[in-house]
Amino acid sequence: MLLLEGADATVEPGEEHIVRVRVHNTGSVVERVDLRISGAPHTWAAFEPPQMNLDQGDEGVTLLHLKPPRVAGTGSGPAPYTVDAWSMVDPTVRVAVTGRVVVAPFSDVSLVVDPPVMATRRRAVVRITAANDGNAAVPASIDAVDAERRLRIHPAHEEVDLGPGQRTTVDLQVNVRRRRLVGGPVPHRLTVRLQPRGGPAAEAGVVVTQLPLLPRWAPKVGAAVAAVVASGVLVMAWTWWQTLPRPVPAVEGRRLDQAQTLLAEQDLVGAVSGEVADQRPKDVVVSQDPTAGHDAAGHSKVSLVVSTGPDPIEVVKVYGLPRDDAERTLKARGFDVRYDDGRSDDTVPAGLVIAQVPLDGEKAMPGSIVRLTLSTGLPQVLVPQVAQRSFTAATEELLKSQLGWTTEPDGVTQGVVTGQSPAAGTKVDKGTKVTLVVSPPPAAPTPAAPP
């Protein structure tokens, strides 16, 4: 007979719920029972202990630990499961009971602006990346606010729906309202706010430094020209300066927004002419035309080819590897590694990987997190008190505690146990052999010889 206590519950990701599993041997032989779980929680569930020995009519209790990881891949909502108790004496005997946990939703939103600092004479582009690292969809709004109202922003408000583990980007077009012909750089501050519905907001700041339209040396030249020529000649000189060739700066390997800002400082226009798959991050400039060092007229276009970013890659299997080897293997593939709490295991030695999320064979983006669980070794059990008991009773008690034994003197199988090592109450690995000091029964008296 199999009974689950606390089988149905709601669990917060990252927290643990314990189900008491009661197994009763109603058969006519001593049973060894193997407990297994199937269904949604099997990757984040563990029995303690996973096996037990039961005499006829005995009942045993094991604990089922359910701990959904706090990652986007752990879906929210009902997660039904089945607990199976298999007889290791007769493999055809099986008892199954179902349960259900409800994984609670959680949200974890973040906001990144790129670049956070820039310089421009007229306009700039700010890329907003909103991320939801929670396990439930989050409707949210992105708002860009210029408290001093010196900038024109489009879009100033954007509604987004962020699914579990999803990221979305919004490009803000930022234009300076009032252009400055001469003078020093002037910083303008922009606040970007990501407001999820029903949750705390995330904020990030951007500093847009406005540069004058004319370089620093231009006012001196203009003053000298104005002193000797008419205003019409000054206009002609300004037009001539605008069309003067200037060296094209090197922007390959820079982010698109940084490249466009750097070109704008030289009165050049960076225009995207194509995209190409590349191992460099998305929106990084792969090539430019004209190339760096060539001359180009003012306000002319520099064609930029940008990266669409790397493709998702397959997560490799690290189950059974030591921690350092598993981490080295995953990082060599471009993944980051995080560790969940370790748990005991009957077959995997301490320090080796017993679970990974995502699973091997699944695909994930380079730089994403792979969560690993390490084995803490065999489960710990308490040594029972068996001294002053018969040898038979003592060994039955050790079997119930999943322990073995040796005897002193060696080979004695009858009598009274007068001592034990380790002592009762000591924590040891499951399967440890307890040394029993056995006093054999007194020898039967030798019958007297007939007269």
Core attributes:
Trypsin Inhibitor V, Chain A, Immunoglobulin-like, 12% helix, mainly beta, 451 residues, five-stranded mixed β-sheet, 33 strands, elongated
Main beta-sheet strand count, sense and barrel state: 5 strands, mixed
Uncertain segments: none
What's the structural domain tally?
4
Averaged pLDDT:
85
End-to-end distance: 64 Å
The CATH topology of the largest domain is given as Immunoglobulin-like
Structural class of the helix and strand makeup? mainly beta
In the CATH hierarchy, what is the superfamily of the largest domain? Immunoglobulins
Strand order of the largest sheet: 2-9-8-4-6
In percent, how much strand structure appears in the residues? 35-45%
Can you give the helix content as a percent range? 10-25%
CATH class division of the largest domain: Mainly Beta
Provide the gyration radius in Å.
37 Å
Oligomer: single chain
Q: Could you give the count of β-strands?
A: 33
Please identify, by name, the CATH architecture of the largest domain: Sandwich
Which of globular, elongated, flat, extended, rod-shaped describes the shape?
Answer: elongated
What does this protein structure show overall?
The chain is mainly β and 451 residues long. The protein folds into four domains: 102 residues, Immunoglobulin-like; 105 residues, Immunoglobulins (Immunoglobulin-like, Sandwich), CATH 2.60.40; 62 residues, Trypsin Inhibitor V, Chain A; 60 residues, 2-Layer Sandwich (Trypsin Inhibitor V, Chain A). It has a five-stranded mixed beta sheet, with no helix packed on it. The protein has a five-stranded mixed beta sheet with strand order 11-18-17-13-15. Strands 1-3-7-5 form a four-stranded antiparallel beta sheet, with no helix packed on it. Strand 8 and strand 9 form a beta hairpin. The longest helix has 12 residues. The protein is elongated. 23% of the residues are buried.
